[in-house]
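Chain and backbone:
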Amino acid sequence: MKELFGTRKKIYDYIQEHPGSHLREIGRNLNLAIGDIQYQLNVLEKTGYVISKRKGIYKLFYPSKIFGERQKDIMGTLSQETPRRILLLLLQKPGASHGEVARFAKVSAPTVTWHMKRLINEGLVEAHREGRSMKYYIGYSASDIEKVMKSYHPMFWERWADRFAEVWLDLSTYKKKEEREDV
């Protein structure tokens, strides 16, 4: 591989620091035109510097030969707000019901259903019917998700510090409210 320069190097460095980023995110954070980024990403992909993986409507970019499919799936999911909130809830409260997930994620029941189908198809979440309700559990072990966040992607902690803190506070408030209701 030849050495990178200019805009191409800037984009490649960004992807190394922020694996799982999509086109518009790269453009927004680097303040570059979308057409320029598309061209440079195409060259980086053809020359083997980066690889892409489609996730829903997004095409996510990763440095080549660093991440396995499982890590890419986890990173792609954690880069999205609602699925991240759902996974964080399930890490704290395995067996959360559909309604609990909707209240915590602050989305409608149909939105939870849509996200859960995707998370289940990806193997990140498992659903078990218990009586009349559906209970959700992390499909991968919690340590796999934490390992990706800490080992492979330390910048998750920087990038999401505010959001993560907000979700964590929401989760602790949710648990306290739930405890008061149980009394």
About this structure: The chain has a mean pLDDT of 82. The first strand starts at residue 21 and ends at 22. The two ends are 64 Å apart (CA to CA).
